[in-house]
């Protein structure tokens, strides 16, 4: 399950106008969410709250044989309440749980004339986050600071006795102007230095016309041209290079992605190809939103040096609640609930459009995710809401060992207010 | 007398190799592997070859139809080989990310994608040279312990032989691993195999190797210098100075020891001399026990050691080939025999107790000591005996919680004028001795570790109480635990034997001739009769 603090964290980025997914590291985010989701282990209870608009806390208690837990605090200099529904009773599940995420429009900082009206860059804002794991006495700390509209600095550190040298720290400097984004990083562990960048083109970035169209009204795009089937998406390509100054080792990779934009009328899809020329590894990821309630993803990997290959498939299925119980009045009168009047709806179509979409999302009761890889390891996850509690029930199953297939089994329960 | 060792029938057994492969595979996969090894290590080929090792019998301690104890010198340069197969991760970034916290991970997109490479390593041209202690009994199987590091040289050939760096790395790593295997794992494997062979009923009993013993082994302060070395004035020493000192082994050695330990030792000696109830706990110390007081005069001098005395201690071992060390010393201690620590100290010093237990009535034991070495020409005086017995250093694992009492008060009176008379345990002299015998001690401690493993392996089915070496206290308990005691005593005896032997070897190398050392009695012997305590 997506942790509450991660949810708050992304709300901070939203509030400051930073595009988290415009980064080379996030090129595979959609397929990773569908194929590499983590299944819970043991029993875990989380109690979280957005205590004030700027301050969030989260307490976690878990048991995998031994009882452990964590305490975390987050402070944001931007008030977050507007952008975030902290109550687990009301939070829209797709916001929290959906794996397939459509692309967000980039913030065109290089060309102010192309900026969308709702783009607001808040500079000199910062986020502080700390988390203490209790029996292990491991401490995590994160500091995010927006230096300028295009610059953001991140510093994260972990301190723990079991780690070598007592802990590690990672510094990350991000530069994002929309069309391209660069990142430089340095880690104390092995003196690792890294550099990565991504360049976007096509789709909403290809011409002024498209941008303006999409800013005016997303609904009119495409349909105005009449070519519904024409694929409308964005290309992103980039690369990364790492070098460990202390252990004299390194790594390099290049990658490209094509993903449809939300305005695309056809089936949303995202395809990524990554190549590691040093290790001879080629990976192709493909994710598609097959229906409104279903997303599928595959990954194929091949190594041209060792001829090793691997595959993985994953899916996500959204579930509507079971047959809605009749209202009390309807029961008394021995009749079914009256269906909602379509005429009314049509009348106020434009106004209600957005609310309706939200209602649609709200009516989801849960999601089932599953994945399978070439070692016949199956991961199953069922996430949903019971009353005001969010739960996540998952298991890792090894189909090769049929006598003892359940490798892991876990249940997470989360409550936030 | 001749022994006939059959090398080929061992390998003629059709199942032998498959069983040995299984055992080796298990042993190799037992410890957690580094992240670079992504698969199990598989022993794919294993052959003992046709050339048997050369065995030279140094001593046979016990010989009967159903048991055997002895020390061998083994040299091997045969055609045995071993091939291992596994898969390694070739991407350094992948292994870098392994076991790192995810929170500070740089989260590379594809730069960490793995490349696993099958690797096969062949070990051949193995050259071994070792002292082996072999204990065999029909009931307990075969126990084999290497006295020293057996591996002399080894050829490692692998898939990556063309890359110089990788080859060197593998050679180094594998030699290290193999040393561990030989010293720690192989004795356990052989013991298990022998149990299956001779006493299958015991085979599935607990034959776990006493790992915890090896963990808490005593640290030889001279092989690994202390963390906070200071000289006599408290100035911090640099590593080169330390190595110089430990090489010279001179009177400056004591300055290597931290002030804290010296204070503790001083407190201990104080508690010996007084009625103080406080005794500091000192872990992992090398302890010397006196049951006679022949060398008191020597030890009493608090000044920095003279070379003479140091040699006394070491030479004493030379004479002690036949240990007829009686129990007189320990019977004198009857009043304090209820102190467990003392009893076990005495037991581990070994010789007197060992002979005592062996000659006890009730169970008749065949005990033949075959001495394959030249007998000493010198008359063995009681003084020398006790010296030989008591001065043999032995590292005792138990904390020195109880002081050793002086066994005769008149002696105390005689030497009243010297303030350090009562000290059985004088830090300075102890450390000087250690400095002189640093190599011997180092080897000895490792030998003792091995021997302890051996003792535990043979006695593991019983509940081993730390104070099991108090035979005089409870005769009934003695009868019960006598086999253990016997083994342990023998083991301790062996330890002292080895210390002596190692010293002999060193000395014979130094002085060129073996006999020379025995012809001229060391100056120490002239010194010890001068002691007013000679009986």
From TrEMBL, chain A:
The keyword Cell membrane is assigned to this record: no
Keywords: Membrane, Mitochondrion, Mitochondrion outer membrane, Transmembrane, Transmembrane beta strand
Pfam family, any one: MDM10
One GO cellular component, as annotated: SAM complex
Subcellular compartments: Mitochondrion outer membrane
Membrane topology, from the record: Multi-pass membrane protein
Keyword Ribosomal protein among record annotations: no
Chief localization: mitochondrion
Bias kind Basic and acidic residues: ranges: 339-354
GO BP annotation list: establishment of mitochondrion localization; mitochondrial outer membrane translocase complex assembly; mitochondrion-endoplasmic reticulum membrane tethering; phospholipid transport; protein insertion into mitochondrial outer membrane
Region feature Disordered, mapped onto this chain: 206-229, 339-358
Summary of subunit composition and partner proteins: Component of the ER-mitochondria encounter structure (ERMES) or MDM complex, composed of MMM1, MDM10, MDM12 and MDM34. Associates with the mitochondrial outer membrane sorting assembly machinery SAM(core) complex.
Domain writeup: Lacks alpha-helical transmembrane segments, suggesting that it resides in the membrane via beta-sheet conformations similar to those predicted for other outer membrane proteins and porin.
Function description: Component of the ERMES/MDM complex, which serves as a molecular tether to connect the endoplasmic reticulum and mitochondria. Components of this complex are involved in the control of mitochondrial shape and protein biogenesis and may function in phospholipid exchange. MDM10 is involved in the late assembly steps of the general translocase of the mitochondrial outer membrane (TOM complex). Functions in the TOM40-specific route of the assembly of outer membrane beta-barrel proteins, including the association of TOM40 with the receptor TOM22 and small TOM proteins.
Family designation: Belongs to the MDM10 family.
Full protein name: Mitochondrial distribution and morphology protein 10
Species in which this protein is naturally found: Hypocrea virens (strain Gv29-8 / FGSC 10586)
TrEMBL record, chain B:
Keyword Iron assigned: no
Keywords from the UniProt entry: Lipid transport, Lipid-binding, Membrane, Mitochondrion, Mitochondrion outer membrane, Transmembrane, Transmembrane beta strand, Transport
Membrane topology: Multi-pass membrane protein
Main location group: membrane
Region annotation (Disordered) ranges: 205-228, 353-431, 458-535
Bias (Basic and acidic residues) ranges: 498-515
Entry's Gene Ontology molecular function annotations: lipid binding
Domain notes: Lacks alpha-helical transmembrane segments, suggesting that it resides in the membrane via beta-sheet conformations similar to those predicted for other outer membrane proteins and porin.
Name of the protein in question: Mitochondrial distribution and morphology protein 34
């Amino acid at each position: 399950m997506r942790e509450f603090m991660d949810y708050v964290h992304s709300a901070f980025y939203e509030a400051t106008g930073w595009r988290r997914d415009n980064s080379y590291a996030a090129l595979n985010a959609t397929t990773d969410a569908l194929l590499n989701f983590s299944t819970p282990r043991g029993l875990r209870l989380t109690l979280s709250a957005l205590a004030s608009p700027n301050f969030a806390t989260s307490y976690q208690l878990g048991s995998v044989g031994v009882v452990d837990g964590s305490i975390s605090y987050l402070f944001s200099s931007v008030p977050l309440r507007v952008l975030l529904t902290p109550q687990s009773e009301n939070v829209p599940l797709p916001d929290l749980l959906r794996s397939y995420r459509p692309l967000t429009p980039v913030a065109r900082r290089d060309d102010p004339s192309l900026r969308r009206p709702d783009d607001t860059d808040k500079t000199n804002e910062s986020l502080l986050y700390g988390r203490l794991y209790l029996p292990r006495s491991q401490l995590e700390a994160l500091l995010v600071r927006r230096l300028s509209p295009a610059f953001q600095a991140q510093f994260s550190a972990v301190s723990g006795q079991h780690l070598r040298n007592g802990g590690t720290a990672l510094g990350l400097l991000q530069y994002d102007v929309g069309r391209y984004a660069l990142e430089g990083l340095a880690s104390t562990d092995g003196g690792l230095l890294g550099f990565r960048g991504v360049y976007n083109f096509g789709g909403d970035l290809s011409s002024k016309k498209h941008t303006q169209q999409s800013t005016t009204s997303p609904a009119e795009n495409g349909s105005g041209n009449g070519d519904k089937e024409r694929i409308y998406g964005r290309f992103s390509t980039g690369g990364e290079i790492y070098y460990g100054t202390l252990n004299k080792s390194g790594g390099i990779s290049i990658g490209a992605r094509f993903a449809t934009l939300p305005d695309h009328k056809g089936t949303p899809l995202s395809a990524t190809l990554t190549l590691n020329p040093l290790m001879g590894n080629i990976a192709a990821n493909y994710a598609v939103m097959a229906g409104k309630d279903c997303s599928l993803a595959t990954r194929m990997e091949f190594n041209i040096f060792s001829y090793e290959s691997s595959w993985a498939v994953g899916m996500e299925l959204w579930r509507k609640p079971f047959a809605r119980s009749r209202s009390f009045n309807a029961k008394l009168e021995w009749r079914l609930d009256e269906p909602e009047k379509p005429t009314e709806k049509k009348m106020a179509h434009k106004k209600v459009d957005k609310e309706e979409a939200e209602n649609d999302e709200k009516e989801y009761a849960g999601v089932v995710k599953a994945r399978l890889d070439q070692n016949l390891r199956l991961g199953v996850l069922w996430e949903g809401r019971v009353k005001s509690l969010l739960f996540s029930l998952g298991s890792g199953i090894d189909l090769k060992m049929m006598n003892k297939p359940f490798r892991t089994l876990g249940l997470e329960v989360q409550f936030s207010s | 007398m001749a022994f006939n060792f059959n090398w080929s029938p061992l390998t003629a057994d059709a199942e032998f190799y498959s069983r040995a492969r299984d055992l080796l595979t298990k042993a190799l996969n037992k410890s957690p592997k580094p992240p670079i090894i992504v698969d199990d290590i598989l022993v794919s080929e294993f052959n003992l070859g046709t050339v048997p090792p050369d065995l030279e019998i140094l001593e046979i301690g016990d010989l009967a139809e159903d048991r055997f104890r002895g020390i061998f010198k083994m040299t091997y340069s045969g055609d045995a080989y071993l091939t291992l197969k596994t898969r390694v991760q070739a991407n350094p970034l992948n292994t870098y990310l392994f076991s790192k916290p995810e929170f500070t991970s740089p989260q590379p997109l594809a730069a960490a994608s793995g490349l696993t490479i099958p690797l096969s390593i062949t070990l051949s041209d193995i050259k071994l040279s070792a002292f082996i202690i072999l204990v065999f009994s029909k009931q307990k199987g075969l126990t084999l312990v290497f006295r020293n590091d057996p591996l002399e040289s080894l050829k490692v050939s692998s898939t990556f032989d063309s890359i110089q760096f990788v080859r060197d790395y593998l050679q180094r790593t594998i030699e290290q691993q193999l040393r561990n295997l030989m010293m720690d794992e192989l004795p356990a494997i052989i013991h298990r195999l022998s149990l299956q062979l001779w006493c299958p009923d015991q085979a599935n009993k607990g034959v776990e190797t006493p790992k915890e013993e090896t963990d808490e082994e005593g640290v030889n302060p001279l092989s690994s210098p202390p963390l906070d070395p200071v000289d006599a004035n408290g100035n911090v020493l640099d590593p080169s100075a330390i190595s110089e000192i430990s090489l010279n082994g001179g009177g400056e050695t004591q300055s290597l020891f931290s002030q804290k330990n010296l204070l503790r030792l001083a407190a201990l000696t104080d508690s010996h001399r007084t009625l103080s109830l406080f005794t500091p706990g000192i872990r992992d110390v090398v302890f010397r026990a006196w049951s006679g007081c022949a060398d008191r005069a020597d030890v009493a001098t608090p000044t920095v050691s003279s070379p003479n005395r140091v040699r006394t201690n070491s030479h004493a071992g030379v004479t002690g080939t036949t240990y007829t060390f009686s129990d007189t010393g320990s019977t004198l201690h009857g009043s304090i025999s209820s102190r467990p620590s003392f009893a076990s100290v005495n037991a581990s010093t070994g010789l007197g107790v060992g002979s005592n237990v062996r000659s006890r009535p009730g169970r008749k034991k065949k005990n033949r000591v075959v001495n394959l070495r030249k007998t000493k020409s010198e008359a063995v005086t009681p003084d020398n005996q006790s010296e030989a017995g008591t001065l043999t250093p032995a590292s005792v694992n138990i904390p020195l919680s109880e002081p050793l009492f002086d066994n005769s008060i008149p002696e105390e009176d005689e030497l009243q004028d010297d303030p350090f008379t009562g000290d059985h345990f004088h830090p300075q002299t102890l450390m000087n001795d250690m400095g002189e015998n640093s190599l011997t001690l180092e080897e000895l401690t490792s030998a003792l570790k091995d021997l302890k493993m051996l003792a535990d392996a043979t006695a593991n089915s019983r509940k081993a109480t730390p104070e099991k070496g108090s035979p005089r206290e409870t005769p009934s308990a003695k009868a019960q635990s006598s086999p253990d005691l016997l083994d342990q005593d023998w083991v301790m005896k062996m330890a002292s034997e080895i210390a002596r032997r190692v010293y002999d070897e060193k000395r014979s190398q130094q002085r060129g001739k073996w006999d020379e050392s025995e012809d001229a009695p060391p100056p120490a012997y002239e010194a010890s009769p001068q002691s007013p305590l000679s009986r």
